[in-house]
Write a structure and sequence with these properties.
Blueprint: H1 4-15, H2 19-54, H3 56-59, H4 71-98, H5 106-110, H6 116-139, H7 141-150, H8 154-165, H9 171-181, H10 186-194, H11 197-205, H12 211-228
């Protein structure tokens, strides 16, 4: 496995000459999220406010309402959508790193995770890994974090298997493969994540604007990390 500095240097090499398209590609999920929020606001929130204004007696009644009742479902759905976008963008950087392609098509590449052959797999993998990590977290926070790192390569594993065979691999096999690949490397990925803390602080200080550049940088580095993992383990 290469050092953190080497992985970051190679990620910068992938991004060199492609920063604009990389930023645009990573910007697409943000813009889509904004559109979804606006649609929900106009389709749901405004009618509720209008109803409340026109029915003050109903709103002051004894009916109980839990304002967070839909929060869990919304968060879960948001997690699925985020995973699909993240998977597609990560696969694009992996292809660039391997030299399988030379350019980025910002819009189509941002949505490549939504393609029919792979979207179901990404959704199922997200659900299964979320359940597994949640169950481990019930024991203690640390085991949940460790398992999160164990399963961190699942989408890459799934993509490679699908690209090689043209057939969707088993979901549990993909998760198991990730766990095997990360055996002995979870600490290195953890330290790699820690090495970006300074950049995260700078991005926050720019009111999040800095993430337009930081997200491609991190994602390209993670793709380099995966490609450098020894692939000798078998499912």
């Amino acid at each position: 496995m290469k050092t953190r500095a080497e992985l970051k240097s190679e990620a910068k090499g992938v991004l060199r000459g492609r920063w604009k398209d990389s930023v645009l590609m990573c910007l697409v999920p943000t813009l889509v999220s904004i559109v979804i929020v606006l649609l929900l606001f106009f389709l749901l929130i405004i009618p509720i406010i209008t109803f409340a204004q026109n029915n003050p007696d109903f709103m002051s009644g004894n009916a109980n309402y839990d304002g967070n009742s839909g929060g869990g479902g919304g968060s879960f759905l948001g997690g699925i959508i985020g995973a699909i976008f993240s998977a597609g963008i990560s696969w694009t950087f992996l292809d660039l790193y391997r030299g399988k392609r030379q350019d980025i098509r910002p819009f189509s590449d941002a949505f490549r995770g939504f393609a029919g052959p792979v979207v179901l797999g990404v959704i199922c993998l997200y659900v299964i890994t979320t359940v597994f990590i949640s169950l481990w977290t019930l024991l203690l926070i640390v085991p949940g974090i460790i398992k999160g790192y164990s399963y961190s390569q699942t989408y890459f594993v799934y993509y490679d298997a699908f690209e090689e065979t043209g057939v969707r691999p088993g979901f549990l096999n993909s998760i198991t493969r990730s766990r095997q690949l990360m055996n002995g490397y979870k600490g290195q990925l953890f330290l790699l994540d820690l090495s970006f803390i300074g950049w995260h602080i700078l991005a926050i200080l720019t009111l999040g604007i800095g993430y337009l550049w930081l997200t491609p940088y991190i994602t390209a580095t993670k793709a380099a990390f995966y490609d450098n993992l020894p692939k000798t383990a078998t499912v």
